[in-house]
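Sanity check. The docking grid for magnesium ion depends on where the pocket ends up, so I'm generating a full predicted complex first rather than guessing from homology. Inputs follow.
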Amino acid sequence: MSIQWYPGHMTAAKRKAEEAMEFHDVIIEVLDARIPGSSINPMIESIRTARQRPHLKVLNKADLADPKITEQWIKYFNSQPKTNAISLSAKKTNDVKEVLLNCEKLAPHRGTSVKPLRMLIMGVPNVGKSTIINALKNKKIAKVGNVPAVTKMQQRIEINSRMILTDTPGMMWPKITNELDGIFLAASHSIGINAYDEIETALILSDTLKERYPESLITQYGFRTPIPSDEEFLGHIAKARNFIIKGGKANLLKAAVTFINDYRNGVIGKISLESPSSRKLMLDNSKIKQEI
Ligand SMILES: Nc1nc2c(ncn2[C@@H]2O[C@H](COP(=O)(O)OP(=O)(O)OP(=O)(O)O)[C@@H](O)[C@H]2O)c(=O)[nH]1
Ligand SMILES: [Mg+2]
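Predicted complex below; grid placement will be based on this.
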């Protein structure tokens, strides 16, 4: 399954983001801490690099990710040239202050009332960009929602007299080349419901969790070892939850949706779908180079 999800407003959003970069000093690139590699938008990376703006990678939703793997990602990103990364949960107001402290360091020539520090927040849909802004302001100033593509336009917010932050609509890129990236983004809710197949997404998600977190699957769903694969995996969840359709058959779609939602809501545990080393392996094995 190759996922192509590029709602109409995103073309305009891309052009506006390119224009906005000229008037901003630091780019805050928000990633999903459960999929820090898959949630890097190569299009954002390329326009940011073209404008030569310093940037801070924020691995948000760290409360849902595996803390050990998040630590590996932070180490990995911080060892890369011109890359700074922190992890946080936008649900914790205290965590979010780190964003400002780091951005100040990246643009030490700004941050006065005459020359305020101008930050542009970017990332794929639904990673928590607007939630970070609300946490920084300590009030609901930007619209948030638990579906992708909530923010439709840029919104300029004065954090204080020395700092300005611009929220942007979540952006995808026109074609996700690596299949696993598409699945991880869909599972983590960065892709619209009409653009992916729930059963296929759930099955690939189940393969990843079987490999990385078998114990969590056993605890949550009462699997016996070996944990079954494919339709048997979903069939077990359907049976356990009594998801039955006419004729007594298991409702695999309902089981798939439930399983994906359990992952999204952290019900299965603190889960990271990829680590720096698993991602390297995935990319080494993939012959296709990501188009942007
Ligand atoms: N568990 C958890 N949920 C979060 C966190 N940050 C944001 N969320 C939730 O994620 C969902 C998306 O948040 P938004 O702030 O609307 O995301 P966004 O990146 O602005 O999304 P778009 O505007 O659609 O691109 C909301 O349901 C938030 O409550 C976090 O750190 N942890
Ligand atoms: Mg938003």
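Relevant for the grid: The chain has two domains: 9-167, 179-285.
Also worth noting: The domain at 179-285 is CATH 1.10.1580.10 (Conserved Hypothetical Protein Ylqf; Chain: A; domain 2).
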